[in-house]
Design goal:
Structural class: mainly alpha
Low-confidence stretches: none
Distance between the termini: 53 Å
Helix content: over 70%
Number of helices: 4
Strand order of the largest sheet: 1-2
Number of strands: 2
Strand content: under 5%
Shape: elongated
Mean pLDDT: 89
Length: about 110
């Protein structure tokens, strides 16, 4: 019973690590695909700086894929999450291809 619980816990941790690593890879690839002038136009750090941040996050995520609650994984998740939650929407607004235009069926909200 006890070893089964630990095996289950290890599998859940591994799945969580793989999901977080996929998020970090997505952030890095998305950063690679963006134009460099859009970063400065959006008022964010330069593209090489964000490539370094998301690249380091991806490497840390890969190295700690079996320990998703380690300090290195937390740092990696924060780097990728800041890019995905703040920088990516700002770049999409600058480039004019944002999916959400803040307009509801009766006007802006």
């Amino acid at each position: 019973m006890g070893t089964t619980f630990f095996h289950l816990q290890a599998y859940v941790g591994l799945v969580l690590g793989v999901i977080l690593f996929a998020m970090q890879v997505f952030a890095f690839i998305d950063c690679l695909r963006r134009r460099s002038d859009a970063f400065t136009a959006a008022g964010k750090l330069s593209k090489p700086a964000w490539l370094a941040i998301t690249g380091v996050a991806m490497v840390l995520g890969f190295l700690s894929i079996e320990a998703p609650l380690s300090i290195f994984e937390i740092v990696a998740v924060v780097g990728a999450a800041v890019y995905l939650a703040d920088v990516r929407p700002a770049i999409q607004r600058v480039l004019g291809n944002a999916r959400s235009n803040q307009n509801g069926p009766y006007g802006p909200w």
